[in-house]
Amino acid sequence: MKSKLAVFVIIGGVITFLSYTMYDISEHGGGMIKHFFTGGNPFEIFIHILIVTVLFGSLFTGYLINERKKLLERTVSSEEMLRKALSEWRSTFDSLPYGAILTDGDYNILRANTFIAKLAGMPVKDLVGKKCFEIVHKKDAPINGCPMHKARMTGKSETIEYYDDDHNRTFNFTVLPVSGEDEGLTFYVHLIGDISVAKEQEKKLKQNRDAFFNMLKDINETHKELREVHNDLIVAFANIIDAKSQWTKGHSIGVTTYAVAIAEEMGLGRDEVELLRLASLLHDIGKIGTYDVILDKPSSLTEEEYLLVKQHPIKGSDILSPIKGFESLLPIIRAHHERYDGTGYPDGLKGEQIPLLARILCVADSYDSMISDRPYRTACSKEFAISEFRRCSGSQFDPDVINVFLKLLQT
Ligand SMILES: [Fe+2]
């Protein structure tokens, strides 16, 4: 925008020049231009120079006035922008959801926002000049572990958590050193966040976690106790089975010992060994339904009696089938009298059709029976049992299982 003063000066200069020119034309007519440049006398020459100077001087002065006006306008605009920026910065600084303090290197507060003012209970202007530790910690000196003290030493950002007794709040303090415009001058920005809610949640989370772990521990204890009860019940069952006959006392426990030893020597997994242990303890549970007189008969069994005895693997499997979790025991118990060559009972399974655990159980069952007294014979020696295993390996028994068991018996 053109300055009005500049326009006035320029127009004034032009009018003065044109007025004199008109006067000169009226005085000298067509010889005006020659007269203007040559002049009549020294005074007229001075007037002519003055008129030209007025014309160009007014143009130049008008230009300078206009430029000054533009410069002033730009200055005013810059000041307004600066004021606006300052106002925005102040608003932002005050509306921060955490405390902000700027101090010099001697802990003196240079600026602080309204968060700090509310915390200290005094206006922002009264905070300026006070020591930061007086306002923040209500102390006469920096506290132990003061992040500003550390930041002064390290020249790096330092953070601590601080519990404020007065406000019953937990704050996170970060002090960040910043370089001033003058070289060697350092200021410190303090950022103070209220983390009470987060700390409370963390505390609750920790309590919940501890409670959860305690519950897991209780469950684990309960589970352990239940397993012990379960195991005791299985052993009691095994003892009941063995108690049916004076000849089979301790048989199930003995079979279990041998079967587990073979399985472990063969490198079977923990779950398979445990399954075999349970199957071994309960393998003759089907004999509960077999008459004692048949089991204790000192002479050879009749064909009908033998057929009844041969039912016990099926009966055992049927007895246990309603029990949830025992499903995997059933095929082992049902097959513990199968023979490797397929001539066993009740299903005539052959080779690897017979579950591996049943083949192991068969060997363990046979050994415990051979070295124990029976109503129809006295106990065999260990050496005799070994020779029988060698003779029947591949026919009655799985040769791989026999090899492992013979190795165990001979160590
Ligand atoms: Fe049996």
Task: Note down, in words, how this protein is organized.
With 411 residues, this protein is an alpha+beta fold. The protein folds into 3 domains: 4-93; 96-194, PAS domain (Beta-Lactamase, 2-Layer Sandwich); 243-409, Hypothetical protein af1432. It has 17 helices and 5 strands. It is rod-shaped and about 175 Å long. The model has no long low-confidence stretch (mean pLDDT 89). The protein binds fe (ii) ion.
Keywords:
alpha+beta, Hypothetical protein af1432, five-stranded antiparallel β-sheet, binds fe (ii) ion
Could you say which overall geometry the principal axes of the C-alpha atoms support? rod-shaped
Question: Quaternary status of these chains?
Answer: single chain
Q: List each distinct ligand once.
A: fe (ii) ion
CATH class designation of the largest domain: Mainly Alpha
| Secondary-structure-derived class | alpha+beta
Query: Please, how many domains?
Result: 3
CATH 2nd-level architecture of the largest domain: Orthogonal Bundle
Number of helices: 17
Would you report the number of β strands? 5
Q: CA-to-CA gap between the ends?
A: 115 Å
- Residue stretches low in confidence (pLDDT < 50, at least 5 long) are none
| Biggest β-sheet: strands ordered side by side in the sheet | 2-1-5-4-3
